[in-house]
Amino acid sequence: MASSSKSNDSTNSGLKDNNSDPNDEDKPELCPGFKDVDAFVKHGFGAVLSATKASASLPQAGDEFDFYRSFPGFQEFCESQGDKLLHFMSQIMQVHGCRSHLRDRNKLTGLEERFDLIVDSNDVILERVGILLDEADGVNRSQQPVMPAGFQPPKIVVSSWNRKGSGSGSRSEMFRLLHAKNVARPQLKFKEKVDNSNTPFIPKIFIKPNAVKPLPSYFTNKQIRKERPEDLDVPAALADLIHQQRTQEHVEDMFAHPYQYELDHLLLPESLLSKPEVQMYRPMDESNFSFIDTLEDLVALNEKLCKLSEFAVDLEHHSYRSFLGITSLMQISTREEDFIIDTLELRSELYILNEAFTDPAIVKVFHGADSDIEWLQRDFGLYVVRLFDTHQASRALNLARHSLDHLLTHFCNVGSDKRYQLADWRIRPLPDEMVQYARTDTHYLLYIYDCVRAQLLDFNHGQPGLLQSVWNKSKDISLKKYMKPIYTEESYLEVQRKQKRSFNTQQLTAFRLLFAWRDKLARQEDESTGYVLPTHMMIKISEELPKEPQGIIACCNPVPPLVRQQVNALHLLVQQAREMPLLKPEVTLFGPHDTSRVSESDHHPFSADGNFIMYACHALTCWYNILEPRILKDEDSLPVAQMKARRIIESFENPFRMYLPSSDVHVNKNAKFDPSSKIFEVTNRAKYSHQQQKELEAKKKAKEEAKQLAKKVSAKGGAKKRERVPSEVGESTPKPSKKLMTPAEKPQKTEPPPEESFKPFDYSQSDLKVFAGNKSKDNTQFDPNRQAHDFKKKTVIHIRGIFCFLVQIQTSRCVNHCVFILYRGFRHNWPKR
Ligand code: AMP
Ligand code: MN
Ligand code: ZN
Predict the structure, then answer these.
(1) Residues 370, 331 within the same domain
(2) Composition bias, kind Basic residues: at what positions (predicted)?
(3) 346 lies in the same domain as 313
(4) Is residue 426 within 6 Å of ligand 1 at its C-beta?
(5) What are the tens digits of pLDDT across the range 621-661?
(6) Ligand 1 test: best mutation among 389, 422, 441, most atoms within 8 Å of CB?
(7) Ligand 1 contact via 832 beta carbon (within 6 Å)
(8) Distance CA 794, CA 784 (A)
């Protein structure tokens, strides 16, 4: 296998990405004293090196430094040199247009603020370097991107296509993009509602073409599940879990990649490793183009694709006016034709493309497929088997840059106008310019696929190793699983930490409350959090803690519509924060389950990987909340046993609370009555179900009485046989589809413990292996093949098992370890662009 350093091999004439040419005599001096870039760089490096050496030899912080500092001469010298350095730094920052009050010692700005300034300036300078490199490379990023409406004031919204026919452009044309402000929300016409609930994503797939391993019954029975009337008042994902518990299916199936098996066993045929014949692309204006927005056309396209040996795919995405984001367009190019699919129109039908997308005999070429793979799963239930990612190829070839722009310039001599990358792709009808741009993204990709394969082989002296590694990396990408953003009690800290702001307790509280408000509203209104309240505004509000609602408005420019609408609610949150005792910055208070030191995001049960625990927690909290209201009755009227139970439960902090999304750490009663808290929602739901249960019980009682009456009447007839039937099947089932309902009901019937006395469960007897994904065939509790005749008992044991497990996680201090056992997905890596 060749190492990537081979790219410097001069024999590889195909790879010319070096750019300096120091021999040019005619060039004027770069800057005084330096004839060219090389000379300047050499000098610069020398200076930086000696400065680094000098700084390393300074007295170390701590005793040594303090000792030296006790000499006035040293102190003076330090101060004058420090001032000088700050002055230079300020100058550099000013040149780059950054804030630069580094030397302003009077300001309350501490070391941290200065550090922030430097970090910000570094970002600005590096960004500028990137842009200049791009420009030197022939890629022009300096143009304004076409932003989604709302991103910027209308006056600035200018794009080539609303300036169409510049000069002669009529007024109506000039304002075309402004109409983008009023783009109808595509979500409104989605057949299946978007699930923004704070629950993990479950694959959408329900038919699995090209399966080697059949799709688990969990997915094939989806239609039946839609008809479960008892689940209508809980989030779909939670209902699925509860249903799964009832039906004893494996949780594992719900979260697995549906094509994991096929991808794990995918072989790489010789033909894909041999040198290809590079097939030139057709000029774009000579190729056919079809816009596909009907099911008929989509079916025809699928049939066409199924006959090919490769095609190219790309997606366009909209993320500003939706919580999870919406795939708005799919581009497909064959060697002959370009297609653009209106994925807003055909969202519910696109799954049919799985036939071609998962056929291992057909290569799907993407450029930078990381996000695409996730979007396909999230929106359409589409998967890719046999992916070739040209971005991975570009990396393996060690090209100067790995963007599609660069590949287009490098291989096809075609420029693309990346301003459209951020266009509002929901706009319909799609303007010609956007169609052109979108087509460009896939039109040349099969040719590039040929070129890079040939080069990967050449590069490696004909050996297939390098090409093979690109196929493997591509396969890894196609194994990625979409993970829904999950709100946790610590989410705000991650964002806050990134801002590198030090907040006092009041500010931090405000930030936490605003963060929770924003997340909740964004999910509810199906808007991005950035649309609801951009982070920088949230920080400003938290820092200033305005006393009046008007002050909140003043922190925002432009004022987000939902902030304006809910300014009073926001004001209450700020007031709440102001009531906190004021502590020094950086004292962050957590509940007793402070997990902040557990390396967050990697193994935290709520990191994107924590699906499983998250699920268990949801189910348990649901149970906890169903049971709890019974105990939280008026204390005076409670019998002694129930009083005891109540005490126990009150002293007993919900053990899964720490793993659950909510706006407060403790389950306190106030939170339950605070409409802004998550617990309020859950409790209400629980109340509702409790109420329902009461009604059910009342009905049951009435029915029982009626039955008793009937029994008395028919007693003479000696109908003994019939008596037993209803009492066994579950007399309180007033709903249809008894087969499904029977197990569903059992947990409710088997759990009236507070009526008697409260006995903590003996956790030591539970089997924990099941949570490690162990299928343990000999385990009596979880054998899906066993008949459910003792369902009642099993459900209780099962729920207690999870409970026990969670208590153990909480009390044993090896959260990491436990989660690690459960952890089966892989980290979500947002691709760098
Ligand atoms: P592309 O693969 O370049 O066509 O990009 C696909 C989608 O990713 C676009 O429609 C955008 O929604 C999003 N996207 C691409 N580049 C960026 C970027 N630099 N910043 C934010 N979103 C981007
Ligand atoms: Mn793309
Ligand atoms: Zn694209």
Answers:
(1) yes
(2) 709-723
(3) yes
(4) no
(5) 444 443 433 333 344 455 565 565 555 444 444 444 444 44
(6) 422
(7) no
(8) 12
